[in-house]
Amino acid sequence: MTVPATVPAFRVTVRGRFGELSEESRAVLRAADAHETAFTEEGTFSPDATLSVFSFRVQIPAGPDDDEDDALLRAMEILEGHGHPHEILRTAVTDLRAVRIRRKGARRGSAAG
Question: What residues form DSSP beta bridges with 56?
């Protein structure tokens, strides 16, 4: 399920390397759309063609007292829940509560008159 951007949330991206995959894991990962890049609550894998490295994207709803460490821990739990052996290479966490969108055509400062 994709979480609307208006809901306070964290977006977590994990880059990793797969360990020894079972045939079942290989089948599940091959069935995944390698070009899918959505941030979902279940997490989305984007493996390479050889099933050696991957990107994993997950969106974590943010509670009022949650910080990036809380989001990363929850993302790791979700990643582990998929059951594919892996090694984590890099992680990135974005707090969407801190992201400001500048609308096109928005004016800065006051208009001269």
Answer: 14, 45
Report the alpha-carbon distance of residue 108 to residue 49 in Å, rounded: 46
Q: What is the pLDDT of residue 51?
A: 94
pLDDT in tens, 24-47: 999 999 987 767 788 999 999 999
Backbone phi and psi for residue 10, each to the nearest 5 degrees, phi listed first: -115, 145
Per DSSP, which regions of 19-67 are E strands?
A: 44-47, 53-61
Can you tell me the distance from the alpha carbon of 20 to that of 83, in angstroms, rounded to the nearest whole number?
12
Read off the amino acid at residue 38.
Answer: A
Place of tokens 């004016």: 107
Tell me phi and psi for residue 44, to 5 degrees: -125, 125
Q: Would you say the pTM of this structure is higher than 0.85?
A: no
Distance CA 81, CA 84 (A): 8
Q: Which of 45, 36, 44 is nearest to 18 (CA)?
A: 45
Which of the four pLDDT bands, split at 50, 70 and 90, describes residue 71?
very high
Contact status, residue 75 vs residue 12, Cβ threshold 8 Å? yes
